[in-house]
Amino acid sequence: MAMPEISRATSAALVVEATGPLALVEDAGRFGARHLGVTQGGALDWISLGWANWLLGNAPDAAGIEIAMGGLKLQAASRMTVAIAGADLGATRDGEALPANGSFVLEPGQVLAFDQPRAGLRAYLALPGGIDAEPFMGSLSTVAREQLGGLDGRGSALRVGDRLIAASDSAETREMPFAPAMPQGEATLELVTGAQIAHFDGASLFAAFNQAWQVDSRADRMGVRLTGPALRCQLGGMISEGIPLGAVQVPPDGQPIILLNDRQTIGGYPRLGALSPIACARLGQCAPGTSIRLSPVSPQQARRAYLHQLALWR
């Protein structure tokens, strides 16, 4: 006799009571489809998502919730161990303050709430085993512009009444070895120079790497505009080409735009280069008005830093 199928409604779940500015299902992203015009998506601060997952014994790239600016409230429908990492958004459990990085138990009926940014911009919530939902092209990552991913498969942010189902019934909890630093004051972003770097005049290159930039209010998951000295490129025009994560494009007004996870797949502006993966994660925590500096590094240096971060999770 066949056993009856167990309903997801009986699994460990969190129910959304309030959503705040933006709360999204994100994992490492969607790869191998940019030739089809499908962008990467994924957690802006992939390091904080990785730590949240690590705290529960999940794979670092398992799907979690990216919470921008706070405002999210979740009620536990059943007992569940969860973890948070990244920005300090004033997380509480039934009004009791929680650390910005750590794992804890939610009993049935308890409410996990995120207030507003105190340090950083985005916090990440991990559930045991990740989030149980149907992936598209191998990923649950939400990309609203392309209407892909998320709980509904149509790129929607979390909505009141949504249920977050844990993909596993148990977690192997760990203690954070250190508190990941959020950008405070001025942030340094490492940049690997690109093919068009030689077409910028000397004064522009000096300014690019020796003067501070400000994160503009025109910033989202597609990209972040910087304001500062106007950069000048001698290229009259370009054929559009593929855009990597962290590409630093310079449009005609001379104000750089750093392209992030939900970027378009091709672009035709000259580029200073691309941020390292570590720097992209750091930028994901920089609020408008943050002062940043660009620091040139070699591809080998960027790769070593990336592999070092991955090794911490092993």
Automatic annotation (TrEMBL):
> Which Gene3D superfamilies does its entry note?
Cyclophilin-like (2.40.100.10)
Boundaries of every Carboxyltransferase domain copy: 35-313
Q: Which Pfam families match?
A: CT_A_B
Q: Fetch the InterPro entries from UniProt.
A: CT_A_B, Cyclophilin-like_dom_sf, PxpC
Mind listing the UniProt keywords for this protein, alphabetically? ATP-binding, Hydrolase, Nucleotide-binding
NCBIfam families membership:
urea_amlyse_rel (TIGR00724)
- What is this protein's name? Biotin-dependent carboxyltransferase family protein
